[in-house]
Amino acid sequence: MESQVDEELSKLVHKSIRMCDEGQKPEASKNHNNNTSRGGGERGKDKPGKFVLKTPKGTRDYGPVEMAVRRQVFDVIHSVFHMHGAVEIETPVFELKDVLTGKYGEDSKLIYDLEDQGGEKLSLRYDLTVPFARYVAMNKITNIKRYHVARVYRRDNPAMTRGRYREFYQCDFDIAGQFDAMIPDAECVQLVHQVLSRLDLGDFTIKINHRKILDGLFGVCGVPLEKFRPICSAVDKLDKSPWEEVRKEMVDEKGLDEEVADLIGEYVKLSGKEELIEKLKNDERLKNSKDAQAGLSDMTLLYQYCQSLGCESKVVFDMGLARGLDYYTGVIYEAVLTAGQNQGKDGPVGSVAGGGRYDGLVGMFDPKKKTVPCVGLSFGIERLFTIHEQKQRALSEKLRATQTEVFVAAACKGMVHERLKIISLLHEAGIKTESSYKNNPKILNQLQYAEDNQIPLVVLIGESEVEAGVVKVREVTTRDETTVKREDLVTTVKQKLGTK
Amino acid sequence: MESQVDEELSKLVHKSIRMCDEGQKPEASKNHNNNTSRGGGERGKDKPGKFVLKTPKGTRDYGPVEMAVRRQVFDVIHSVFHMHGAVEIETPVFELKDVLTGKYGEDSKLIYDLEDQGGEKLSLRYDLTVPFARYVAMNKITNIKRYHVARVYRRDNPAMTRGRYREFYQCDFDIAGQFDAMIPDAECVQLVHQVLSRLDLGDFTIKINHRKILDGLFGVCGVPLEKFRPICSAVDKLDKSPWEEVRKEMVDEKGLDEEVADLIGEYVKLSGKEELIEKLKNDERLKNSKDAQAGLSDMTLLYQYCQSLGCESKVVFDMGLARGLDYYTGVIYEAVLTAGQNQGKDGPVGSVAGGGRYDGLVGMFDPKKKTVPCVGLSFGIERLFTIHEQKQRALSEKLRATQTEVFVAAACKGMVHERLKIISLLHEAGIKTESSYKNNPKILNQLQYAEDNQIPLVVLIGESEVEAGVVKVREVTTRDETTVKREDLVTTVKQKLGTK
């Protein structure tokens, strides 16, 4: 059967032809990473009176391809959360300012406040943990295993090329409730292990430590009680700074005796496996600390549970891990990618997940100070996006920003109603279908669009097809064509898509 | 084989027993709709000095069951967006204040501003349309079909029982680009039709009108040009207020001549189908307006395309539809649920989706005023959630907040490591598995937990099972049990779950 479609197709010059008049090219590749605010300063201030088109400092837009990458990462994380039977909650993007006050120590200066427009004093959330504790206390919840994926806000110095923004996603998983020691804690370590394994971003280590071990250590070394948190906060910088700098902060800024600092220095450089835990249990100094011994016993139990959960090989006991936040009370952990490919332009990507036990936070919100013990973790998802995207690019996979399965094309003029009818028919069957927004688009442009967007099938019509009540179904990669009756179109398309 | 599991099970007293010591009951049913801030005033202000545990005015938390409902609604909407080949984008939650200035007319006072903490002047986004236009202009995009699902912020008077909040979701779908008349516009109408049909929330109507018809009408009736937008904004209130009140606003507040108002009144009460369009084309007054005639021609074409797309039966041409926002320039539409069950406690739910053509907005951001024509729509998703939830409750379906497939239970003490090993094994195979966080949970409590949470399978172990290297797989609803070797566990579980 010689149809207009065939005639038109015979004119088809090959891919190399660039089409410019279709006005329906996908924008994904163009937008991708095209953000004028990157690394941008406060240009709005520089030229008063002139309107500057940008996003706020430290923020950016995400284009179609980037969003497709994020969806992939989110899907993996969600699936692991669901595997653990976690429920989802959502809290407002801002909280009463009082809710955030006194929770973040030195970092409180980074909180975004809302303008007082009459009413309550509000701040944008700084993390998802404090809103979670507020939620647990407010609703008098005794136990819950929840996840929460949302953006948080910090007026920090942005380093956008390293994936550090003022607005960024956190993926949190927390277990609240009075349970037996280390079982929920081990589940958190297992969950980090599962997510990083499934994302397949190269090798990683899960560092663990315990606030009671650190506090016990500070005690036996002679740190005054009121300096425990500031000294802990100094130790926390060991992953970015050499010991000499940390020691300087302890001695010069925080007024610690040099000998005490040196003593701490000997311990915080230790890292190892179970044998280190056993060694420290018998350490002459730590033997005298109940706190340290309790923490070390927890570590032993945690290691055992991790063994049964099959995730102990990645776990390293690291005495130098301290975690910045004040509210941790027990086990703390942090996952770092160790593979060479994860070195960004500006150095290693560093920590991609972290967390720990915070048994006192919920009590801070309860009128009677009744608390609910909690343990949880947070994925630094922006870094995971960056690495996942690098990996995709390295594989030179072309990521699709859409999922379209069929493009409806016309070989001649005056077919717009026929195209709409076919779209309606295919949509009715749940088939993802697009067509041109032009009344009379050129056939070459239509076919090129399908090819550029990796749409697997084209449904082609011309006057003779319409008259005969048939359509042509064309496979884009093979250019193989079948003519089918319109009533068989859905079945044929599903067959070809393998979704029958 | 007589095992400890069997012994323990023989003691199993029926469902009616309430268990209290397990400490792992799901919190979903408890939290559900338990929000102390509902309808709450600014209680934080009433008692200065005293810390009040609440969410900010006009906002709320969403608990596990509510989130599960939202996921269902979002999934339907996402699937329709993907069916149309839309890409996803994301923009920051705040914009430079200048970006929002002069876009919302009278409603600008409802914008949340951020405190000036040194740096840029920022405001929380008020909708997703203006950020989209800013994105299109900033990235010099000539065409894109995108969706964006995110929360927006309005310092409005909250009416939380009616689903009106200060922080709420919008689901936006927009088509930007220079295309042939009414093809993208018809796709938007079709998409509203598809989403509302699939959500199955009862009957609905899609009202359509055209800003050019309204402007043409105002012109021929004698409305002065500078009063076009204020009078349009008055007409917009017709869905909530009777004509008499709207007329009063026109005459008393906005200084329109009484006769002019009465003349407008005759037209804006008209609604109908194609025959009304034809009638108005021949109307003595509207014949004299080029604008009105152009708008009416668009309406005819839109109706024809809707016919081909199979969605014209729900479309009603309503001369009283005006839409509040200033930026519309062409077709406008609004979907309302009409079924009786959708009357909330405080009256009908009203509009659940709306949108229109806004050809000038992108140009407002372009330094050379180069514009990109746009048409789009926004689902008022909070209302859809409310109605969907009511429907679910009416069906007395118990919604699950989790997806757990297997609960691992122990019939005797000292089984925690064995349970963890089985969890690890099942997770490895992608099976959603939970267990108790207690060392030695009671068997009754474990089985009750599985039943309460609608977990279909329980994997049971006791000492004899561990010795023999087997486990029991119990189907929770039938209480049917099978003993299988541990190496066959994954296969058996998959078989029973029907996911082999």
UniProtKB/TrEMBL annotation, chains A, B:
GO process terms (BP): histidyl-tRNA aminoacylation; mitochondrial translation
Xref: Gene3D superfamilies: Anticodon-binding domain, Bira Bifunctional Protein, Domain 2
Residue ranges of domain Aminoacyl-transfer RNA synthetases class-II family profile in the record: 58-384
GO cellular component: cytosol; mitochondrion
Class of the enzyme per the UniProt entry, highest EC level: ligase
Substrates-to-products reaction catalysed: tRNA(His) + L-histidine + ATP = L-histidyl-tRNA(His) + AMP + diphosphate + H(+)
GO molecular function: ATP binding; histidine-tRNA ligase activity; RNA binding
PROSITE patterns xref list: AA_TRNA_LIGASE_II (PS50862)
Protein name in UniProt: histidine--tRNA ligase
Species of provenance: Petrolisthes cinctipes
